[in-house]
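Quick question, first post here. What does this chain look like in 3D?
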Amino acid sequence: MSKHCKHIWRNYIEPAGFKSLKVIAHSAGGFCLTGIQQTFQSTFYKTVSSIAITDSCVIEKSLLTPHQREFMAKRAVHYISSYEDLGIEERGRTRRGSAHMEVCPHVS
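> Answer (accepted):
Ran it through. Tokens below.
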């Protein structure tokens, strides 16, 4: 899946020349996002303005560089399944009790 995501970025996103891009990554897409950030640093950070991650359990803080962690903390939101009302920040809670390490705010 990571190979496919990098192919899409290289062959479609970069040539399109977007000035601003909003990314939605679901489940394992969070892990793919990490690979794209690392591989395409010259275009990713200039192009992506915000990220919505939905129910992902695979973004490991230890795999991110300090720059990636800072970017994710400022521009990404992780929407998780919850019994709370929509839009409530859920500090310290991760997707269904997984070992996911927080890299951005978790919201119901």
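The two ends are 27 Å apart (CA to CA).
Strands lie at 21-26, 48-54, 76-79, 106-107.
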